[in-house]
Amino acid sequence: MKVVGINGSSRRAGNTSIILKTVFKELEKQGIETELIQLGGQSIRGCMACMKCFEMQNGKCVIQNDCFNDIVAKMIQADGVILGSPVYCADVTPEMKALLDRGALVSHANGGALLKHKVTGAVTAVRRSGGLHAFDTMNHFLHITESFMVGASYWNMVHGLEPGDVENDAEGMKNMQVLGENMAWLLKRISAK
Predict the structure, then answer these.
(1) pLDDT at 114 over 90
(2) How many Cβ atoms are within 10 Å of 152's Cβ, its own excluded?
């Protein structure tokens, strides 16, 4: 079993990466492989609404000169997906938004099945506020892709500004551990079928 985490932050070793790796630690304890994919800071276009994905129906976007298709291919191959973003102006980063917008359309163009029945979650690193909206943005994407969204002990956000500050949010970090435990539990139940 494998779970990929998508880091929407441009800070490769920042707070979003730290919280994704905290979830990974719990998954790895249960023997589940993990891979962190760096999305933030990469060049990725927003959706052009060209609708070519409906013509092609190959699980890809017609735009070939950015990271989108490679990332979506890894998401499709994985058993689970965790989306992670810091809060930018009360929402996800532009790179994460582009991934979600294009991913939703490509999924819809392919019968909605790209992430169907995958175990998923979303996490956000927030300085002060706006975290709930960013969390909702990612969850709305996961909801319409027919994935199994895993809950934890509270909303999946951890507070901190400077890289590493999230580690001082004991409740938030505990919630990341619970998310990892719950994802591992569900992944194991699904694979036991």
Answers:
(1) no
(2) 19
Q: How far apart are CA 28 and CA 192, in angstroms?
A: 18
Q: Is residue 114 within 8 Å of residue 141, measured between CB atoms?
A: no
Q: Please report how many Cα atoms fall inside a 13 Å half-sphere around the Cα of residue 57, on the Cβ side.
A: 7
Nearest to 48, CA basis, from 36, 69, 62, 59: 62
The answer for residues whose C-beta is within 8 angstroms of residue 144's C-beta and 6 or more apart is 104, 107, 108, 112
The band of 49, judged by pLDDT with boundaries at 50, 70 and 90, is very high
Contacts 24+ apart (CB under 8 A), 111-117: 112/144, 112/145, 112/146, 113/146, 114/59, 114/72, 114/75, 114/76, 114/145, 115/75, 115/76, 115/81, 115/142, 115/145, 115/146, 115/147, 116/145, 116/146, 116/147, 117/146, 117/147, 117/148, 117/190
